[in-house]
Amino acid sequence: MNTPPRPHAAPTVVDLRREVDLALTLSAHCPTSVQAVAVRGRLRNYIVGLEDQADQHAQHLEEGRAKDVAVATVRHAKDLARSTSTGGDPAATLRLLAKSVEILTRYATAGGRSEP
User: Of 40, 42, 76, 100, whose CB neighbour count within 10 A is largest?
Assistant: First the structure.
């Protein structure tokens, strides 16, 4: 069974991967459950924790399409994490948050941070 990261410890890349997998599973089977609501909250927190390192990586990419996509992706993830909207499709929101964590983890790691 997937479990949340260790309390009071910075999540590892493995912890974040488990959370993403859990979110994707919940989005397919029970996106409105209490567990899904809790995972959405944790994913938002992970995005906030990853955004600075991910943004640094995106800003240091060579000018071009890859940089434009990376910068826009980080900006979208930040907006998503801070969204207070309660409307919309809960399954889609869970998937978007999960994929945002996955991508920001990759950017943060590529930017020189070994543990987000």
Answer: 100
